[in-house]
Amino acid sequence: MAGRAVSAWVSDDVAEAVTLEARRESRSPAQLAAQAVRFFMALPREARASVNALDNLGTPDQRRAALNEVARALNNAEFEMTCQRMAPHSLELMPDGMSDEALDAEAVRLTKAALKRGA
User: Fold this and answer.
1) CA 38 from chain center: how many Å?
2) Angle (deg, nearest 10), helices 29-42 and 45-57
3) Considering the domain boundaries, does residue 25 fall inside one?
4) Structural domain count of the chain
5) What secondary structure letter does DSSP report for 95?
6) Three-state secondary structure call for residue 96
7) Nearest to 30 by CA among 56, 54, 52, 8
8) pLDDT 10s per residue in the chain (119 long)?
9) Residue 1: what pLDDT?
10) Is there a domain that residue 92 lies in?
């Protein structure tokens, strides 16, 4: 994809965080920054104005609470997307004619097994 460079001045802390996160994700800092800019610019103008207001007027606690809400919304959207993509395949795995009680029992069994593995 053809593109242009866009530069920004950030604090040393932000620059270091970008470098570390890019390394963790096996990406370049430029790739991480490009994704951040694409995300920000995809927001409606009003949402970008809210980000600016939080940056300029919000307390650190208010900014953290807002970021937590955004993270929660993104996680919920990803979960819903994953469920929608998995739904057609999950029907293929279910034996024909399985009763609701048998399905519930299997769900409980799988949940218990997953909890044991996580413990």
Assistant:
1) 15
2) 110
3) no
4) 1
5) P
6) coil
7) 8
8) 678 999 999 999 999 999 999 999 999 999 999 999 999 999 999 999 999 999 999 999 999 999 999 999 999 999 999 988 988 777 677 777 788 888 889 889 989 988 888 76
9) 64
10) yes
Name residues whose C-beta falls within 8 Å of residue 106's C-beta, 6 or more positions apart in sequence. 98
Q: Is residue 44 part of a domain?
A: no
75 in a domain, yes or no? yes
Residues sharing a CB contact under 8 Å with residue 33, sequence separation 6 or more, in sequence order: 8, 18
Q: CA-to-CA distance for 84 and 91, rounded, in angstroms?
A: 12
> Which residues, including other chains, have CB under 8 Å from residue 51's CB and lie 6 or more apart?
40, 43
What is the domain extent for residue 62? 58-118
Tokens of 16: 């270091």
